[in-house]
Every structure is written in structure tokens, then in C-alpha cells.
């Protein structure tokens, strides 16, 4: 009987393995695990604490979604805000090496004996829990990024005086998901922040001023069209400036304490481009749709199985390309592209042996040779090209605009950089051939080329030799 049970168990594992391999996006992208605690039962501060608690829950879920992370939440408020419940949650958290663990507390606090970051105070039980202990314990599960924030006072004494008025800078902005991924999926390390210096209070009005400033600052920096650098140091230095400005007229002005430990940023994986071959069906697909592509599927003509998503956990930004490796065989394939909003299109009998496939704004996928042929007709010529960095320096920003334009437009690199020796595909609409190009290097120097006929070029090389 035991042997039969073992055999049945093995059979179930064999059956389950294909199902597990179908969903690489969830495994590769990691989780955003949020522990949010708030003392909302304090009669004198119920409204402020509840407002902050809801702000933290909503913003954390949104940040995870924008970064492409699955979201898991443990929340403790009202009667659930108990010492043992929070301690057990911190001790029992499980995470993987690509996860983000986020802890946030809103409530009473006091100075701690072991660090400058204060304690979580459980008013109904008159017990304290060190914020440093919380950070050290959560770090034991070895997440890729650990963020521990406290909005509480750091003194333990009530201070007389009115809470300062402040205006929310919250505005409706469009989301740049690449900038959220820069913070939450490309960053590693530990962030520990408390809202006030030792011996100082933390102020609230409607919501906690520190947390409100943090959410608004991060949202503004990650908004679409923002070309300012985005990293955790910038997020919290600007948050601290906002808090200082908003509490300048308080009886005791407030300044957060920030500690960033071993914060690094990994570069998005850049696979080598595929060289075209008349017998090799592998190809590069370039996104020239003006939208983000979330899924790419390829199957041989006549097959009913789309197989796995070729993008995995990645997102193919407009102007970027993806090398797609295919087994040797037929050059004719079917191509399915799925966009951010869930819409999709299927292209049948695509000859992938040409090596370079362009996804166009109209949903059609065609070879680059077909694009060039069409460009020589009344539709105009194709000005798209590759920028090759052979400067020996890192390029931080790339701008390309029509020569007739007075604006440079958006940075083509977004939150990425172009290391020396690498290339960046620049997808441009068919038509005008004359473009201006500007590159900005890591050391602050910049170069420009003006009135360049890119229709006659395949590659533009930096540095620009005049």
C-alpha cells in the first residue's frame, strides 16, 4: 500500500510540473509583501490614523501593480493591532530572493535604547517593539529589497501646540511603469526610515505628514514624462525636504531619519541581437507600436499551442527589441502580441528567417525589409536606426527629435542606461528622414548631431565625430 501511495504521489508531481512551468511571470517577477500596522483605536487620533492606514494600503498595492509585482498584505488595525500579532507576523514572514518586503507603522512611538529609529508603541497593552528589531528580523528572510518605515513620534512625550496646516501636492498623473520597476524590481538593499529625529514629534493633519509626503514624492518622480533621476536616495531626500517645509511653522519642526544600506540597482537584462539567416527562424522583434507589449507568443503555422510567453517577467517598451530564439525548422510562424490593456493581435504566416520583425502601430508585424520597401513608396522612408555606444563611457540619456522640432522630447532610455559596447534600437515613424540626436554621458558631458539623414543609416555611433 505504501509503494502504491508513493507512486500516486510521483504521478501527481509529474502531472503538476507542466502547469508550474506555464507561469514564469509570477515566479520571476517576485512579490511585494506588505505588513501595515496602525493604532486606529486611539479616540483622539482615529481619523488621522485611519486616513494614513488607508493611504498606505492603497499606495502599496498600486506601487506593486505598477512595478509588475504580485501583492500580498498583512494588515493590523483596530482590535487587530496587538503586540503578539505584529511580532508573530514579523517573525513568520517567508519570502524569496526576488521579493520586496515592506513594513509601515502609524501610531504612537517613543525613543529606543538600541537605535535612533524609535519604537512601535502598543497603547492598549503599554508595550513597545523596536523598529530596529523589526528591520533585523525581516532581513532574516533575505528579501531582495527591505523597506521599513515608521510615521510615529520619536520622543514619547506629548507636545502642546497646534498641528501645522499643510497642502497636499497630490495630482492626477500618468504612470511610467519603468520608473516604478527601477525602484521596486531593480533595486536591492535595506531602507529604514523614521518620521522624526530622536526626541522630536511627528505631525499629522488628516493623514500623517511624513507618509503623505513619501507617497506624493514617489508618485511624482515615477510619473510619465518626468525626466529627473529616480532612485531611493532621491525619493527620501525629497520626502525629507517636503516634511521639513510642511512642518516649518510647527512648535517643533520635523525631520525624518533615513538610512539606506547596500542599495544597488541591477540593469535590465540585455540579450544579444540575433543575426539574420535564411535558414534560422530566430528573430528580433522591435516594438514600434507606441504602447507597452506585455506578452509575446510564437508558434509554427498549423500548431494550436502558443506555448510560453517569450517575455517572461519583462515588458517590451516602445522602441525596444526582444531576441526570440526558435528551433531550426520552418521559417513561417504565427505571432501573437498582447498589450498592457489586454488587447491583442495575431499575425499569420510571418517569415521570421528575415531576422528582424517590426510590430507596427496598426497591429501588423512585418520584416524590417518590408518596412524599408514600403518606406520608399508614397508612405515615406524609414528613419529608424540603432545607436551604438563606443565611447568608453556610460550614456545616461538619449534624445532624438525631428530636425524641424524645437523640443528634444522624452529620454529614449527612460530609467535605463546604455553601457559602452551596447546598442539601443531607435524606432521612428516612417516619413521625415532628418533628425537631431543628443546623448548625455555619466560624467555630465553631452554631444549632439544635427540634421542627420537617418534614412540612409543603419547605425549611429557615439561619440559623434564631427
Low-pLDDT segments, ≥5 res: 10-28, 157-168, 368-380
CATH topology of the largest domain: Rossmann fold
Q: In the CATH classification, which architecture of the largest domain applies?
A: 3-Layer(aba) Sandwich
State the end-to-end CA separation. Answer: 82 Å
- The chain-level mean pLDDT equals 77
- What does the main sheet amount to? 6 strands, mixed
Strand content: 25-35%
What does this structure look like?
With 466 residues, the chain is an alpha/beta fold. It has 3 domains: 243 residues, Rossmann fold, CATH 3.40.50.1460; 93 residues, Sandwich (Immunoglobulin-like); 78 residues, Immunoglobulin-like, CATH 2.60.40. Helices cover 24% and strands 29% of the residues. The strands form 7 sheets. The chain has a 6-stranded mixed sheet with strand order 2-1-3-7-8-11, with helices on both faces. A 4-stranded mixed sheet has the order 14-12-17-18. The chain has a 3-stranded antiparallel sheet with strand order 4-5-6. It is built from 9 helices and 24 strands.
What's this, in brief?
The chain has 466 residues and is of the alpha/beta class.
Give short descriptive properties of this protein.
466 residues, alpha/beta, Rossmann fold, Immunoglobulin-like, six-stranded mixed beta sheet, four-stranded mixed beta sheet, 9 helices, 24% helix, elongated
Amino acid at each position: 500500500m505504501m509503494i502504491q501511495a508513493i507512486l500516486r504521489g510521483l504521478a501527481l508531481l509529474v502531472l503538476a510540473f507542466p502547469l508550474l512551468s506555464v507561469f514564469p511571470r509570477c515566479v520571476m517577477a517576485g512579490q511585494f509583501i506588505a505588513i501595515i500596522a496602525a493604532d486606529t483605536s486611539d479616540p483622539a487620533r482615529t481619523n488621522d490614523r485611519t486616513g494614513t492606514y488607508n493611504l498606505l494600503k492603497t499606495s502599496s498595492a498600486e506601487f506593486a501593480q505598477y512595478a509588475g509585482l504580485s501583492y500580498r498584505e498583512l494588515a493590523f488595525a483596530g482590535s487587530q493591532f496587538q503586540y503578539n500579532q505584529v511580532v508573530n507576523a514579523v517573525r513568520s514572514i517567508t519570502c524569496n530572493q526576488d521579493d520586496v518586503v515592506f513594513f509601515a507603522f502609524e501610531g504612537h512611538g517613543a525613543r529606543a535604547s538600541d537605535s535612533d529609529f524609535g519604537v512601535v508603541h502598543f497603547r492598549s497593552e503599554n508595550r513597545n517593539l523596536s523598529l530596529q528589531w523589526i528591520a533585523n528580523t525581516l532581513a532574516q528572510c533575505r528579501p531582495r529589497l527591505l523597506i521599513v518605515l515608521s510615521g510615529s513620534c520619536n520622543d514619547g512625550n506629548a507636545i502642546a501646540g497646534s498641528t501645522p496646516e499643510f497642502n497636499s501636492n497630490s495630482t492626477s498623473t500618468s504612470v511610467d511603469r519603468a520608473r516604478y520597476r527601477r525602484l521596486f524590481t531593480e533595486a536591492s538593499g535595506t531602507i529604514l526610515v523614521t518620521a522624526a529625529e530622536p526626541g522630536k514629534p511627528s505631525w499629522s493633519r488628516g493623514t500623517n505628514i511624513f507618509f503623505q509626503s513619501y507617497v506624493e514624492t514617489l508618485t511624482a518622480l515615477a510619473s510619465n514624462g518626468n525626466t529627473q533621476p529616480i532612485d531611493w536616495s532621491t525619493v527620501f531626500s525629497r520626502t525629507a525636504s517636503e516634511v521639513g517645509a510642511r512642518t516649518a511653522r510647527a512648535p517643533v519642526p520635523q525631520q525624518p531619519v533615513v538610512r539606506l544600506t547596500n542599495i544597488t540597482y541591477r540593469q535590465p537584462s540585455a540579450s544579444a541581437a540575433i543575426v539574420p539567416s535564411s535558414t534560422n527562424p530566430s528573430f528580433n522583434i522591435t516594438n514600434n507600436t507606441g504602447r507597452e507589449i506585455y506578452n509575446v507568443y510564437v508558434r509554427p503555422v498549423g500548431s494550436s499551442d502558443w506555448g510560453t510567453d517569450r517575455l517572461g517577467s519583462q515588458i517590451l517598451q516602445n522602441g525596444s527589441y526582444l531576441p526570440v530564439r526558435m528551433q531550426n525548422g520552418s521559417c513561417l510562424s504565427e505571432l501573437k502580441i498582447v498589450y498592457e490593456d489586454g488587447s491583442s493581435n495575431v499575425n499569420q504566416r510571418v517569415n521570421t528567417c528575415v531576422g528582424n520583425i517590426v510590430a507596427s502601430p496598426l497591429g501588423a508585424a512585418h520584416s524590417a525589409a518590408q518596412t524599408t520597401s514600403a518606406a520608399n513608396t508614397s508612405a515615406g522612408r524609414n528613419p529608424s536606426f540603432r545607436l551604438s555606444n563606443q565611447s568608453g563611457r556610460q550614456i545616461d540619456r538619449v534624445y532624438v527629435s525631428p530636425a524641424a522640432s524645437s523640443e528634444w522630447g522624452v529620454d529614449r532610455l527612460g530609467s535605463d542606461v546604455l553601457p559602452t559596447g551596447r546598442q539601443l534600437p531607435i524606432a521612428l515613424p516612417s516619413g521625415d528622414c532628418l533628425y537631431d540626436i543628443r546623448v548625455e554621458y555619466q560624467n555630465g558631458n553631452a554631444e549632439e548631431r544635427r540634421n542627420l539623414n537617418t534614412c540612409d543609416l543603419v547605425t549611429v555611433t557615439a561619440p559623434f565625430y564631427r
